[in-house]
Amino acid sequence: MPDAAPALAPPVPAALAAEIRKGLANQLAHPLGHAVTLAISITMYLGLQYVMGQGALRTDLLPATLIAIGAYWFLQYSGQVMVADLIEEQRTGTFAAAHMSTAPLWAAMAGRLATAALFALPIAVLASLVPALAVGIRLPWEPAALVPYLLLAANILAFTFLMAAVAIRTPAVGAIHSLLTSLVLMLNGAFMPLALYPEWMAAAARLLPTTLAIEAIDRVLLDGASLAAVWSGGTLPLLIAHTAALAGCGAWLLHRNRRLSLADGRIGRY
């Protein structure tokens, strides 16, 4: 029995690397589609800000909304990479074949999450940088903002993981994901800063991914608050708890849906 652990070790990094290579190759195979989507996304953001400003781009609101729209695009593209690929593999039976490997399922899922992050991050940065340069938005930078930014990425990937766990068993996951990401776009501050929302709407928005992290980033970068102040105000503890809850629900749902799908033979089909 002591020799069993070393024997299982090699498939884990191999599975991680294989998932990352496969995922990136699938996404980079159609660069034109992503370029068109990115151009439409940037135009949509600037158009919405023009409408919200009643015929003008309000420079006082743009920095906060730019942070929020960047978070949204990271959420949108990471979900697109992970969930859409998983749905396709379910339909073709490729996902079922992955269960024949000696590598654990968590290794494949971790590779998918890494692919989602590697692909979504540069797109989110570019989708934020282009309008910032076009309109002349200058965001200040503080090293302390790195902490809420890392927590933002963790929060988004935890949500993406939860959606992937849903996708194993639910054919309608695409509609569910689209609905939730649309709510994020409307409520996380991409249209207007959260401080301008009615209190009940702001409270509801904080239940969605990205919102708490955006609040923390805004306070550090735009208000000049310290991490200690953001922590004592409750935003960072709530963000950590929110991320842990998403990850925990995703892990439980992944185990449950995988077990049920193996039991009834639906692991490779809907």
UniProtKB/TrEMBL annotation:
Top-level taxon of origin: Bacteria
Transmembrane segments: 27-48, 55-75, 113-137, 149-168, 174-196, 228-254
Alphabetical keyword list: Membrane, Transmembrane, Transmembrane helix
Localisation per UniProt entry: Membrane
Every ABC-2 type transporter transmembrane domain range: 22-217
One Pfam family this sequence matches: ABC2_membrane
Membrane topology summary: Multi-pass membrane protein
PANTHER family: ABC-TYPE MULTIDRUG TRANSPORT SYSTEM, PERMEASE COMPONENT (PTHR43229:SF6), NODULATION PROTEIN J (PTHR43229)
The protein, known as: ABC-2 type transporter transmembrane domain-containing protein
Record organism: Glycomyces endophyticus
